[in-house]
């Protein structure tokens, strides 16, 4: 399996090997790079999709050291360096989108474009931090209450029972304590809103209309703070994981955005 070692971690990734421009994608919290399977299946030949398992998720291994989104951004660039990718489009969903924003800020000349799905650029409010902490403490406990799992799958994945059931089965089978440091990363994230004016590459910002973690105002604020062209799209019927539940709409937007990038 493909791994890149960095800072006490072995970062797992997949590479579609497509002939077009490279798009590095990060998944949402509690999921892994398999959430992009429908993008790989349809777009993986024309776009080089590099999908990364974040620390605490999937097949990535780490030593339990605390980390921030800036560390995850450096992990992603380490994968790009390993693959010999000089310039990439940075993208992700929620947790992965927070990483993509910081990837872009760390290496603007190397970032051809930015794709943000279901994410804000600001820090969490104290009220939201408390709510997330309560849920994630349940999540990492010895027994995960079924109502909590159903609530989380509905909020993060949305869609139908067919979309949600495989992920609930995966959650029950895995070591949920692995995500403790990732939970701290999410809850304690810093605001990068005031830095976004330095990002002048084309950007695309997507939000599912049922996304309860980010608001239309969050999406608009992020788009207006960016220094370059930023297009916004709302996906009807979707929650956070719009790419998983509404792949036709999201894949079409990916194709159009990637095809329109300047050299």
Explain what the structure shows:
With 263 residues, this protein is an alpha/beta fold. It has a single domain, classed as Alpha/Beta hydrolase fold, catalytic domain (Rossmann fold), CATH 3.40.50.1820. Helix content is 40%, strand content 18%. It contains 10 helices and 9 strands. Strands 1, 2, 3, 4, 5, 6, 7, 8 and 9 form a 9-stranded mixed β-sheet that branches. β3, α1 and β4 form a beta-alpha-beta unit. The longest helix is centred in the first third of the chain and has 14 residues. The protein is globular. It starts with a strand and ends with a helix. The model has no long low-confidence stretch (mean pLDDT 95).
Q: What would you call the shape? A: globular
CATH architecture: 3-Layer(aba) Sandwich
How large a portion of the residues is in β-strands, by DSSP E?
15-25%
* Portion in helices: 40-55%
Short summary:
Strands 1, 2, 3, 4, 5, 6, 7, 8 and 9 form a nine-stranded mixed sheet that branches.
Question: Key terms for this structure?
Answer:
263 residues, alpha/beta, Rossmann fold, nine-stranded mixed sheet, 40% helix
Topology, element by element:
Layout lengths: L2 E4 L2 E7 L6 E5 L10 H7 L4 E5 L8 E2 L6 H14 L5 E6 L1 H12 L4 E7 L8 H14 L6 H11 L4 H13 L6 H8 L15 E6 L7 H10 L4 E6 L6 H4 L1 H13 L4
Parallel strand pairs: 3-4, 3-6, 6-7, 7-8, 8-9
Antiparallel strand pairs: 1-2, 2-4, 2-5
């Amino acid at each position: 399996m493909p791994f890149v070692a960095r800072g006490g971690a072995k970062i797992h990734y997949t590479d579609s090997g497509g002939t077009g421009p490279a798009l590095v994608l990060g998944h949402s919290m509690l999921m892994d790079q398999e959430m992009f399977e429908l993008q790989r299946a349809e777009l993986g030949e024309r776009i080089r999709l590099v999908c990364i398992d974040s620390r605490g998720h999937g097949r990535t291994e780490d030593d339990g050291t605390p980390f921030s989104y800036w560390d995850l951004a450096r992990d992603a660039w380490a994968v790009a360096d390993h693959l010999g990718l000089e310039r990439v489009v940075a993208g992700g969903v929620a947790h992965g989108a927070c990483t993509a924003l910081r990837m872009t800020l760390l290496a603007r000349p190397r970032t051809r474009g930015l794709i943000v799905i279901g994410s804000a650029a600001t820090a969490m409010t104290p009220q939201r931090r408390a709510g997330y902490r309560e849920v994630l403490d349940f999540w990492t406990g010895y027994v995960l209450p079924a109502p909590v799992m159903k609530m989380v799958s509905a909020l993060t994945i949305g869609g139908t029972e067919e979309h949600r059931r495989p992920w609930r089965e995966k959650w029950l089978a895995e070591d949920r304590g692995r995500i403790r440091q990732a939970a701290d990363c999410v809850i304690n994230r810093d605001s990068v809103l005031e830095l976004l004016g330095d990002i002048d590459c084309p950007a695309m910002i997507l939000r599912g209309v049922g996304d309860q973690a980010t608001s239309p105002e969050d999406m608009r604020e992020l788009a207006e703070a960016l220094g370059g062209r930023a297009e916004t799209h709302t996906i009807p019927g979707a929650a956070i994981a719009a790419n998983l539940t509404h792949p036709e709409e999201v894949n079409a937007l990916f194709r159009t955005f990637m095809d329109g990038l300047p050299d």
